[in-house]
Amino acid sequence: MWLFGRPGPSGFSPYSTAEQVTDGIDASGLTAIVTGGSSGIGRETARVLALRGAHVVMGVRNMAAGKQVKEAIINEIPTAKVDALELDLSSMTSVRKFASDFNSTGQSLNLLINNAGIMMTPFMLSKDNIELQFATNHLGHFLLTHLLLDNMKKTARKSKKEGRIVNVSSEAHRLTYPEGIRFDKINDEKQYSKYQAYGQSKLANILHANELTRQLKEEGVEITANSLHPGVISTNLFRHVFTPPSFAEGFVKKLSNLLMKNVEQGAATTCYVALHPQVKGVSGEYFKDSNLAKTTELAKDMDLAKRLWDFSVSLTK
User: Fold this and answer.
1) Which residue in 126, 129, 238, 292 is a FRET match for 5, CA 20 to 30 A apart?
2) Using one digit for the tens of pLDDT, what is the confidence trace for 49-87?
3) What is the pTM of this model?
4) 177 is known as an active-site residue
5) 153 CB neighbour count, 10 Å cutoff
6) Options 177, 192, 198, 286, the catalytic residue
7) How many CA atoms lie within 13 A of 241 on its CB side?
8) How many CB atoms neighbour CB 91 within 10 A?
9) Could you give the CA distance from residue 148 to residue 170 in angstroms, rounded to a whole number?
10) Residue among 51, 41, 11, 44 at smallest CA distance from 260
């Protein structure tokens, strides 16, 4: 229970909010992309990055919702620089268009926050015929990162400022299939578990950041890649957990105020990893409650990370 958390070595705790962990940080001159910026912790992440002076580009599936969030942020923070571009991470065509549209503007890119996700859905296939949770939570972000990486490298060299890639993962990475990633059974409906498939996609987020770190260090590029657990937050992510609705759902909702973080606290670790000076030069790590945390052995497996990388490349060609 995060309720009893104390501040860690960073000075922050599960109680800390996104505003608190970025207090006094000047992000002006930085450009950040936040996927899933129109709701939940993505929205709060976008708002706080804009509050600190960053130019925020939200990748959103629903452009009407994105426009409303943009207007709300600007109403609250008149100096905010916020844009919304359409992005459906379950569609490689949409991911390619988003990256192309962004890169064609000539804007630099300092921060990439791979935040959007779906959780514990019934078995479905993406528009590219890949299991939906793996396609949305991992593969879409893998392709997006690949398509934006040259821009980030150029920005880091030109600006002499460290670029940061942040993958929002989950403690659910501990609840994946026994082998970690089911390379040969990604689309196996008969053996599908919505819980383990979610865990698999979150494990993939960590492995992606770790292999990306290895490659960036090898190239000598000043870009870091980290992953994190935002906390258990009462958002619309939980809409597929209890199907059909049950007594358990009502019970969880009643307990949520005690057991779960609010959105302001849920966005804290993302904003900490994206902006805080304490994280400068730190890469290939996993964070929780704005502090370094431990993962499973599978999440540290660099051979598994490399195999996932090659598998993801083959699926996104």
Assistant:
1) 238
2) 999 999 999 999 999 999 999 999 999 999 999 999 999
3) 0.93
4) no
5) 17
6) 192
7) 13
8) 18
9) 24
10) 41
